[in-house]
Amino acid sequence: MTHTAESWQQRYRRVFYESKPGWIDGTEEFHRLCAATIGGSGKILEIGAGPSNPTSRFLATLGEVHGLDPDPLLRDNDALATAAVLEGAHFPFRDASFDACVSNYVIEHVADPAAHLREVARVLRPGGTYVFRTPNRLHYVALVARATPHWFHVLVANRLRNELVQAHDPYPTVYRCNSRTAVKRFAQTSGLEVAELRMIEKEPSYGMASRALFFPLLAYERLVNATSSAAGFRANILAVLRKP
Q: What are phi and psi of 98, to 5 degrees?
């Protein structure tokens, strides 16, 4: 029997994270939040659905998923009941069409968060929720991204995350609704209530390029997870907004 050698990235991830009791990665935590918030039925709009991916397929276990994305590649997403290409700011759906909206790493690309959230509020039914995951603008990854040009992100981002060659290039980011304060402010002006805001820091995905990067970023993860007073510097925001 042939065994594939374990890479150092796989070994470090297993030793420092996966072997710890109760540990789950960020995607699993986001999916659990979606399941707990949305329940097991209803009509879901995935904003920024893109082509086939694990989150779309997970959402399809919770209800009927309809996709919205400016990229026509979302038509290749095998988990969607329908796929609509976004043109402009207006969502091509009637008022109160959905029980829930979901987005995964989309908010950081939205140039007008108020308009985005107003459209979310419009297409949600009363009592409906918007669940999303997005980077925290105060985390080191976002700080570097905001301080460097987009061509630099394209050059180094996938390499630092040890992504496959075929992974898509990062999309341009603006980070206008990427802090707890900003989420609360834009939600209020858009007619949505903040039901939950959770800050999380998981394994250092941007440290997977080298051991020299991994250990300092591991130390950062341990530090910001050690106390709630450092929560504002964790990597990602998980949010639940509710339409009254």
A: -130, 150
Spatial CB neighbours of 174, under 8 Å, sequence gap ≥ 6: 108, 109, 110, 111
Could you read off the pLDDT tens digit of each residue along the chain, which spans 244 residues? Answer: 556 789 999 999 999 999 999 999 999 999 999 999 998 779 999 999 999 999 999 999 999 999 999 999 999 999 999 999 999 899 999 999 999 999 999 999 999 999 999 999 999 999 999 999 999 999 998 898 777 765 454 555 545 545 544 445 556 899 999 999 999 999 999 999 999 999 999 999 888 888 999 999 999 999 999 999 999 999 999 999 999 9
Hey, where are the domains in the chain?
A: 8-242
Question: What is the pTM for the complete model shown?
Answer: 0.90
CATH architecture of 8-242: 3-Layer(aba) Sandwich (3.40)
